[in-house]
Amino acid sequence: MKVLVTGGAGYIGSHTCVELLDAGHEVFIMDNLSNGHEAVINRIHNITNCEIGFMNADIRNTSSLDNVFHTFKPDVVIHFAGLKAVGESVSDPLKYYDVNVGGSISLLDAMARADCRSIIFSSSATVYGEPEYLPYDEVHPTNPINPYGRTKLIVEEMIHDWVNSQEGRKGSILRYFNPIGAHLSGQIGEDPNGIPNNLMPFISQVSVGRRDYLKIFGDNFETKDGTGERDYIHVVDLAIAHLKTLECQSKLQSFDIFNIGRGETVSVLNLIKSFENASGKAIRFKIVNRREGDISAFWSNASRASNLLSWEAKYDVDQMCEDTWRWQSDNPNGYNSEKV
After folding, report:
1. Which domains does the chain possess?
2. What is the pLDDT of residue 339?
3. Catalytic residue among 11, 148, 176, 335
4. Does the annotation count 11 as an active-site position?
5. What is the per-residue pLDDT for 338?
């Protein structure tokens, strides 16, 4: 199939492009590089030995979108493009509504003009909010507690309404838990622009001396070791979930939602220990105050993805840490490193 990947030069998008190309699909990336890297395009080519189309453009740019749909003529869109920092969404909420919601409106409009009827959307477990029960399943009430999560939920609802407004449209929503890890080749991985918003890039940047120490936000949670517990999933497992969704979409309901996680938790201290084992490096850290709104622990029920997509997470946390260390040690300055 011909797949347009918005935000395909970012962390999850790049790994998904590799899986799509390896499976024989044709891929075109549209990315404004606000949190992606143009060097990714060559690295995807190096890994897959496949050609890949690329346009440096914002999905809010109508003429650029129409140009891609007119020339590439995608069968399906996998939509990653958007902002993803929870803290920034609290301090600058309108930016998040503009980019995440406004960009998605622009994209769905362009799809309608081009009669492209299938979309797979990169959503988040943040749409659930405070757990009423655990593990989260797809029918758990949604009540996001920050603007980032609210923008994800709004886009989910928009896609639902867009799909229902015309026969033959398909919308699949993947709600991610906590992706970490990197491609086995060490060629692509997570390289956030500026200060990382997620735990693993902080750990890996401390390991190569880019940062002095890691801040652990609280050690008094109701967990086994007092630090927060999360459901971590290898980014390659997550990428394969997109491929499985693409290949199964014709058999799915017109609108469907899937949790993508391992269904188990790992604490902050356990993740650090696993990374130290993988890297042979001690990770310096300091315990600081808890952040407002942080949940002690949460994890997924991903049985729908298993049953309907024939998808299972394969890689454990030790593999996630080994692959992250390979990526970071081979590329100590991320995509700005000399190695290509």
Report:
1. 2-336 (3.40.50.720)
2. 46
3. 148
4. no
5. 52
